[in-house]
Amino acid sequence: MSKSTSKSTLTALPTPSPWPGANARLLGVGAGLPVSKLDRLAAFDDKEFERLVLEWGNDYLKTKMPGVFEVQLRGGAGDKGRDVVVWFDPPGSPRRRWHLYQCKHYATALGTGTAFEEIGKVLYYTHIGNYTSPEEYWFVTHKGVTSPLQDLLDDPSAMRAEILKNWATHCRTKITSTTAIELTADLRAHIESFDFGIFRAKQPLDLIAEHEKTRYHLTVFGAPLILRAPAKAPPSTVAPQETGYVAQMLDAIGRKLGVKVTDTASFAHDPYLKRLFDRSRLTFYSAEGLKELARDQMADMAYFDTLLDEFCDGLYHHYTDPDRLGLDRIVDTVKASQALQLSAHVLTPHVVPNDREGMCHQMANEKRVDWCAR
Q1: How confident is the model over 170-210, as pLDDT tens digits?
Q2: Is the torsion defined by CA of 320, 324, 330, 332 positive or negative?
Q3: Alpha-carbon torsion (170, 174, 178, 180), positive or negative
Q4: Residue 98: beta bridge partners?
Q5: Residues of the chain with pLDDT > 70: what percent?
Q6: Mean of pLDDT over the chain
Q7: DSSP type of residue 367
């Protein structure tokens, strides 16, 4: 700047706009950039991919598709071309309805040759009566299907014609490992009357989007950018959900004062006890924020419960010490909670110091701890 520039000409710089991709860049510091979900699917082996489809079927289809009775994993030797089966009727039903999901985890998009092999199995086994025709048959892949195969899936008549034309090449010796399946007149008639409109392809991004709505998604794909809302301030009066630990706090304070304490008025004259009580509520609600995170963003309250189990196990010798009762036991347990080594639990990255203290009061609230019992 020139010396002749007067101070009156200086203006404040505008507030900078957010850095593009800031969250991803921050993740890149020491941790690596986040892996795309399609790339993560590519790293799965066949069994892991089948498990993902089973999770999707059991926790998404079962809740979103009316009338699902059971979801089964059938992949393996002797599956007769059935990986994941969704049943709509109980066993023994006269016409048991079902959908079939065939998992294909290859390095490239699924092509017509492999698809014909799998379709040939359904045609053969329904022809000989091993099972009935599914109402829907879905190819489930992580790379999608080739354009020629998608064209045939969109044109059932053309698919039928191609299967018949290519039976010797793609089906005859691919249905069983021991016997060649000839295209007899009876089998041809079965194929010509078969509903090829049941064959479809599940788009990989649709599979991921629907799997996101299951309880399993976080453990499969991770959630590095979970945003946690600020902890709620405690309400002015004790709420029904916190009466358990509050009653124990009052008992501990009463033990300290040598009198029965039923409300805060009994120790309003003591600044230390008042701050201690107020802090217990503040940290309890901080831990409640963790519970809401598990419920709302991770869709599984069990994550919070298992984290609470870790605190109960790790702090056991502090909250059961017979020589430290009441407030002494509370303070000792809270101090120990700040140094407790947690496992690679899914909630661990989100735990802050107030949560650790609040988890001690959560333990009391659920009657896992009694601060005044020997």
Answers
A1: 999 999 989 999 999 999 999 999 999 999 999 999 999 99
A2: negative
A3: negative
A4: 87
A5: 88
A6: 87
A7: T
Residue 20, pLDDT above cutoff 50: no
Q: pTM for the full model?
A: 0.58
Q: What is the CA radius of gyration of the chain?
A: 31
Other C-beta atoms lying within 10 Å of the C-beta of residue 30:
6
What is the Cα–Cα distance from 191 to 128, expressed in whole angstroms? 12
Token output for 342: 């947690």
The residues, any chain, with a CB within 8 Å of residue 330's CB and separated by 6 or more, are: 249, 252, 360, 371
Which run of H or E residues covers position 136? strand 136-141
What count of other Cβ atoms lies within 10 Å of the Cβ of residue 118?
23
Q: Which amino acid is at 22?
A: A
**Do the beta carbons of residue 298 and residue 346 sit within 8 Å?**
yes
Three-class DSSP category at 138: strand
pLDDT over threshold 70, residue 6: no
Identity at 107, one-letter amino acid code:
A
364/245 Cα distance (integer angstroms): 5
Given a contact cutoff of 8 angstroms between Cβ atoms, the answer to whether 319 and 345 are in contact is no
> What does the DSSP assignment read for 266-283?
GGTT-HHHHHHHHHHHHH
**Local confidence band at 33 (pLDDT 50, 70, 90 cut-offs):** low
Exposed/middle/buried for residue 92 (C-beta within 10 Å: 0-12, 13-18, 19+): exposed
Q: Where are the alpha helices (DSSP H) in the chain?
A: 22-31, 37-42, 46-56, 62-64, 112-127, 147-153, 156-165, 167-170, 185-193, 204-211, 217-221, 243-257, 271-296, 302-314, 316-319, 327-339, 353-365
The string of DSSP letters for 45-68 reads: -HHHHHHHHHHHIIIIIHHHSTT-
Sign of CA dihedral 138, 139, 141, 143: negative
Using one digit for the tens of pLDDT, what is the confidence trace for 83-93? 889 999 999 99
